[in-house]
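Researcher: Structure for this, please.
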Amino acid sequence: DKVTEEWIGEDTFVIQTGDVFDRGPHTAQILRFFRRLQTEAVAASGCIVLLMGNHELMNIAGDFRYASAKETAAFGGLEGRKEALELNSFLGD
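Model: Predicted structure, token format:
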């Protein structure tokens, strides 16, 4: 829903095909939004699958050559960006 930003897809399956990373300064915000919607979708018998594209894989490997300074700052700096990619992070589970 555009106003409440809540899952309204009922039992819809959504597959996000990756490359969220390195597209602008709102990556962290977008990923947190997707993670929240995943929980809401499951509760409504729906599903959101986030696939990893080459930019996600590059970031996991520590290759940040396409990352903008604003995007990295939104993660709390380079260390925050690296921590977000760890297995026990909001992205890593």
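Researcher: Any notable elements?
Model: The mean pLDDT is 92. The chain is about 40% helix and 10% strand.
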